[in-house]
From TrEMBL:
Coiled coil: none annotated. InterPro entries: Acyl_CoA_acyltransferase, GNAT_dom. SUPFAM superfamilies: Acyl-CoA N-acyltransferases (Nat). It comes from the Bacteria. Residues 11-149 form the N-acetyltransferase domain. Pfam families: Acetyltransf_10. This is GNAT family N-acetyltransferase. The lineage of its organism: Bacteria, Bacillati, Actinomycetota, Actinomycetes, Micromonosporales.
Length: 154
């Protein structure tokens, strides 16, 4: 699938219809909980916060990639739940998703918790490692930041 054939969508929780929210959650659960075998509470309450923005790419009405932007204290934006559907991987969608997200973030400081094997991908989008590697749900992660001062402690 060529990236130019993909539609970009951005919405707050209140702007999401039930079917779309279902499809976004299904992709997140299919990849993070099932594929990566990380049983964790996917519904953490942050999806419904007023400052959260859901960003996804769809082709023919099917969600192919997703992330969420969270409003953290101090004007920091947190990128999380970055995911590409298995059938859509290798087509540049992750890069397009990050480009769209960073366009929305603009010049605000931005943080994320990268799976360690993806640190180079995020570095290509201007993120730098801000702390030591740690293991979450059996997967090595690295805290990363783009813009602004050092990341506040979570």
């Amino acid at each position: 699938m060529a990236p130019q054939t993909v539609d970009v969508h951005v919405a707050s929780f209140t702007e999401l219809d039930v079917r779309t929210f279902h499809d976004l959650l299904r992709l997140r659960i299919d990849v993070f909980v099932v594929e990566q075998r990380c049983p964790y509470p996917e519904l953490d309450g942050r999806d419904v916060e007023p400052g959260t923005r859901h960003l996804w790419l769809a082709h023919d009405g099917i969600v192919r990639a997703y992330l969420r932007l969270l409003a953290d204290p101090g004007g920091v934006v947190r990128i999380g739940r970055v995911v590409v559907a298995p059938a859509a991987r290798g087509g540049g969608l992750a890069g397009r998703l990050m480009t769209e997200a960073l366009r929305l973030v603009d010049d605000r400081p931005c943080v994320l918790e990268a799976q360690a094997h993806l640190a180079g991908f995020y570095a290509g989008h201007g993120f730098t490692v801000t702390g030591p590697e740690y293991v979450e749900d059996g997967i090595p992660h690295l805290p990363m930041r783009r813009g602004g001062a050092s990341s506040p402690k979570d």
